Here is the input.
Amino acid sequence: MREKGSGNKNEFDFEDIDKEVTKFLKDKEKNIKESIIGKRAMEELGDFTLDVGIKKTYLCTERENKKAYSIFTKVIELFIQVYGGTVTIYPKGDKICLELITPKREL
Here is the structure.
């Protein structure tokens, strides 16, 4: 990929890269969600949001969802077992959210 209007083949068109990455993530969104919280949890939570970052992941659902607390408990247990990370649960308007913080890992 080249920068638009540039004759230099070594320069990248970051807009094209962003579009491709966004398209890839959108195409793989369901698989990513399933790998993080599991298919069963997704079905039981119903309406939820999942924002995944390099160090932090946020999982939110409606506060009125009676299944949310038991599902969050399972997600927390698995997260701590696998990553040894830190978890915070907090209210956010009419939602209840988890903040999952993955510790730094040495390569």
